[in-house]
Amino acid sequence: MAKSKPVVNDQLSYKKPSFWQLLVQNKTLILMCTPAIIFFFVFSYMPMPGAYIAFTNFQYNKGIFNSPFIGLQNFKFLFMSGQLTLLLKNTVLYNIAFILIGNLLQLMFAILLNEVASKWFKKTTQSMMFLPYFISDVLVSLLVYNLLNYDYGFISNLVRNMGSEMAKVYQMPNAWPIIIVLVNLWKGTGYGTVVYFAAITGMDTSMMEAAQIDGANGFQRIRYITLPTLKPTVVILFLFAVGGILKGNFGLFYNLVGNNSMLFKTTDIIETYVYRSMMNSFNFAQSSAVGLFQSVVGFFIVIGANAFAKKLDPDYALF
Amino acid sequence: MKKLVALLMAMLMVLGCVPALAEVDTSEHVVITYLVTGDIPANRTDEVLAKINEKLTEKVNAELAVHWIEWTDWTTKYNLALATQSGEIDLIGTATDWLNAWPNIQKGAFLPLSEEMLQTYAPQTWANVPAENWELCSYNGEIYLIPEDEYAQWTNHGFLYRGDWAKEAGLENGVHSWADLAVYFQYIKDNKEGVIPWDANGNGSSYAPQMAGGWQTSHTPNVYIEGIGVDLFYGESKDAPYTLSNYYIEGDELVNFATEMKKWADAGYWRTDVLNYTGDVVAEMEEGLTGAHQHHTQTWTGQRTSLEKKQPGADVGFFWFGEEMGNVVGLNITHGAMAVAMTSPNPERALMVYDLLRNDPEIYRLMQYGIEGEMYSLDENGYIVRPEGFNDSTDGVSLNWWWGRRDELELRSADRDWEAIDALYAKYEEVKINYPYGRVVFDLSNIQMYLDNLSNVYNTYMPRIVFGMVDDPAAFVAEFRQQLKAAGIDICMQEIQNQINAAYGL
After folding, report:
1. A156 and A149 in contact (C-beta within 8 Å)?
2. Using one digit for the tens of pLDDT, what is the confidence trace for B310-365?
3. Does the beta-carbon distance from A259 to B79 stay under 8 Å?
4. A82-316, what's its fold?
5. pLDDT < 70: residue spans in chain A
6. Inter-chain contacts counted by CB atoms under 8 A, chains A and B
7. What gap in Å lies between CA A177 and CA A51, rounded to an integer?
């Protein structure tokens, strides 16, 4: 009892360091962060006032801030279309699928790769998984077309050679959520795996060694050490991803589906809709309005998700 | 003393107006940057440009630099360059039909050109362009565009087909209607193994309006109105151009189109997954793998010769949209036009440079054909002959001058079939009408959101109608029309009709 008192006093007398003290204390870390801070300041914060364009009838010769203010006029067409519910549903559902299945696979592959002993195998697998990330959506769409098209597709020919009839995939809206999710996973898994792999590599090896000595088998080590250690990384990546839940990958969807409106019911996302509506009117103010709408909603979702994470464990929250 | 000089100068200017204006101060050497759509050339363009710049420096102490807007994502990049200009561009190639010249004028991208400026700095152009054409280039009483009005060209669409196969199909005189086209396609389907009658690459956004408009102008006297962004607005006929057509709202012709195209799709005239196909139709035609290509007249003039080399005897013919009705409209004089950038630091000198590019025979030929003797020579007819093994993409010059060509200075290529081309052009000249809506500049700001939604509906339904990807054509057209109504086509037609009435005092 007597011993604990000075500790309490010590805590009470602890003065919160000032901003400058913190700066000096962490100067190396801050220096290392500077490029990223400058990058985000220049490319993300400085253009922010420009979002005002979404509320104007933008005139080139007057500039963004002197163009006439027209309130919410630019947002109207999106709500007027009667399609917003379908677009929101598709956009959000695809993103949920991408985020959940994507992260799960990335996590799994990172752990599996970590367990592989052969360095050669590890490196080769990683490179091969990474490769699709660099293939442009245009080429991906060609690959998919040449696999699946009804008349001459690779799979169609296989199916025909085996004596059955190929489905007309490009006329089946229900097939496309699966195809698009698969393509997205094929493209993104290798890339995402690296992040988790790096987190695993950064783990304190003494814990693993201790577990090994205590006789924990491979599954137990994954279950009780690797996974809990990765938990904060998972939560942070999830929080990052959730902010963009209203934003679709235009390149992927547009190239795979194009103007094949037989598939729109399950493949039309906000971006492709906006493209179809405005490809001939190039209205910067109106497209900014859509972008702003997506960002603002994304912002509130991040705030919400962050609050939720905080409730689970304050350490998981971003802010 | 200074005041006296100024006074004297002023008096001189008043007294001898013309000579005073002709003397332009060109003591400072300036670079005039010209913004143009096109991929950065990998041929001898730089070399030729240096030669052009020698001449320009000598004559007006200026040189030309090119700001390329590459074709990838060009509409966005082009309009963005105009929106964000801050003195780095001077001349801008534009067009009222395919480069949104009027909306860009309304948004303040271009400098108004006073008559005095044009008279002083572009005197040859001013003299050559008649007053009524300047009027067609004006908005709110001010001139913004310099038209390409001394150049005849045809970019109306239609089908390139093989004359040899058409003959085999029993079409002795070739394909001259949609009905002939069906006969031709069916013949290929039945007799040419491994050939897709028309291997359309339906994965673009341009086929729908081209084909839909093609059927429409072939089966109705309707006249296309440009510059609205969605191809739903046509005038009734050349005799009643200022009444809007109800083609997309009611009537059987659109249903007929949908029904016929479904027949074609079911007959296999194109591939099943046409809407997602992105092949190169021209290359396939050169290899004899397909029998037709839907494009415009100028494409045909080139293909007629070049395909003959790959498929001897192909005798490529052209069925033009509107042929059955004799319904064709001459190209608007602002299908190509030059504008001066709002923020150009040297608008006067920019106009002087333009005047030379357009009118100086020596500079014009350098720009269009390259260095004489090295890159081309002229034969006894005055036609242009390229040296052996000449390849335009490595040996030619590409300045994409589509904003002030002149027939007087153009050279004909010796390797084109001018007999066939002139025969077609003569036919066009016989039936064509001039673009009847040159005086209307639409202000779409009040209906833009409806137009955007109409654009979505059009681009959702029309590709399926065009390629017959529907179960019940009549029902599908009915649904399309109902969606157009919901998106506000009536409001838009009313507004466009009002603006036409206002422009033509009706």
Report:
1. yes
2. 999 999 999 999 999 999 999 899 999 999 999 999 999 999 999 999 999 999 99
3. no
4. MetI-like fold (1.10.3720)
5. 1-14
6. 121
7. 33
* Chosen CATH of B22-154+332-424 out of 3.10.180.10, 3.40.190.10, 3.30.450.40, 2.120.10.30: 3.40.190.10
Share of chain B above pLDDT 90, in %: 86
> Does A278 contact B452 at a Cβ distance shorter than 8 Å?
yes
3-class secondary-structure state, position B34: strand
- Residue B411, judged by CB atoms within 10 A of its CB (0-12, 13-18, 19+), counts as middle
- Is A250 in contact with A272 (CB distance < 8 Å)? yes
Interface of B with A in 63-102 (CB under 8 A): 75-76, 79-80, 82-83, 85, 100
Which tokens is B422 given? 């002139």
| pLDDT value of residue A281 | 77
Q: CA–CA separation, A78 vs A80, rounded Å? A: 6
Cα–chain center distance at A84: 22
Domain boundaries, chain A: 82-316
Spell out the domain ranges in chain B. 22-154+332-424
> Most B CBs within 10 Å: which of A83, A142, A277, as the mutation test of the B interface?
A277
Quick: pLDDT tens for A81-131.
888 999 999 999 999 999 999 999 999 999 999 888 888 999 999 999 999
Q: Which residue of A has its CA nearest to B205?
A: A259
Determine the residue of chain B that is closest to A275 in CA distance.
B456
Model pTM above 0.95: no
Q: Does A286 touch chain B (CB under 8 A)?
A: yes
CA of A73: which chain B residue's CA is closest? B449
Tokens of B420: 């066939």
Task: Tell me the CB-side half-sphere exposure of residue B83, using CA atoms within 13 A.
Answer: 19
Say which amino acid occupies A45. Y
